[in-house]
TrEMBL record:
It comes from the Eukaryota. Keywords: Signal. This is C-type lectin domain-containing protein. Residues 1-20 form the signal peptide. SMART domains: CLECT.
């Protein structure tokens, strides 16, 4: 029994070691994110975390583990073997192309060109997008658009570069959309009704009105309860949904109205490397 127990211990130890390993230019940790080694350009930048952004680490795996313990905010790190330092950050840009403001609020950047060490990142966003972790399961790249457009034009603008108007199918995403009103006072969100669909006449049959996300999925009952408290479909022509403005909450409005908007891209599990 002792030999069997030792064998099981060795197997478990091997599996544990495999969960954290280096293969070429990639380092994988147990929360499934893959941190890819990235070459730093002369103007490389990284947005530092708000607190404890720099710590000591005796190894690359220890530095990665420190980032892993903060999955909702840490997406990049720089490990310097020479002085055993680990710098943690969120969004990184190896080429230096990075937005210096998040939603109009200053953020602290760390210049990487003057630091030693190797940059690893699990995800970054394309130009104009900022990384936001809604919760441990949902991470998005978002772009705040201050130009006011009609719903269809806003939708098209988001889709041009592979995004969509922002949605909120979880409580954490809902909270984020509420918070986004601090960034843009009145925004379109990715919801519209079916009253303009072929064969649907909401004027004759108001109960036939249903709401859909821009990806085609019908809103759940719980989502509807959160947003439809003041919906009235005035004149049966208010088929799109915005948040903010004079009502300071969700409201149905004419799709031909002009509002700001937020585009989103949901990061795949394997991440996006710029």
């Amino acid at each position: 029994m002792r030999s069997l127990g030792m064998y099981v211990f060795k197997v478990l130890w091997t599996v544990t070691c495999i969960r954290a390993y280096t293969v070429g230019a990639q380092f994988k940790i147990g929360d499934t994110r893959v941190f890819k080694k990235v070459s730093k350009g002369p103007d490389a930048r990284m947005i530092a975390l708000d607190s404890h952004a720099q710590a000591s680490a005796s190894s690359l795996s220890e530095c990665a583990a420190q980032c892993k313990r903060r999955p909702e905010e840490c997406f990049s790190y720089v490990f310097d073997k020479s002085d055993q330092t680990c710098r943690l950050g969120s969004w990184s840009a190896p080429t230096g192309i990075i937005y210096t403001q998040a939603c109009g609020k200053d953020v602290e950047e760390t210049s990487l060109s003057e630091t030693n060490g190797t940059l690893y990142t699990s995800a970054c966003c394309a130009d104009g997008y900022l990384l936001h972790a809604m919760d441990k399961q949902v991470t998005k790249c978002v772009r705040y658009v201050e130009t006011s457009r009609q719903f269809a034009d806003a939708l098209k603008d988001c889709e041009v570069d592979g995004g969509q108007l922002i949605t909120f199918k979880t409580d954490a995403e809902y909270d984020f959309v509420q918070w986004s009103m601090d960034c843009l006072s009145d925004n379109w969100v990715g919801i519209q009704d079916n009253c303009g669909f072929p064969g649907i006449d909401c004027r004759k049959n108001p109960s036939s009105r249903k709401f859909y996300w821009v990806d085609g999925e019908e809103l759940s009952t719980s989502s509807l309860e959160k947003i439809t408290t003041i919906f009235d479909n005035a004149g049966f022509v208010e088929g799109c949904v915005q948040i903010g403005g004079i009502f300071d909450t969700f409201n149905d409005n004419k799709c031909s109205s002009n509002f700001h908007y937020v585009c989103e891209k949901v990061l795949p599990e394997e991440g996006i490397y710029c």
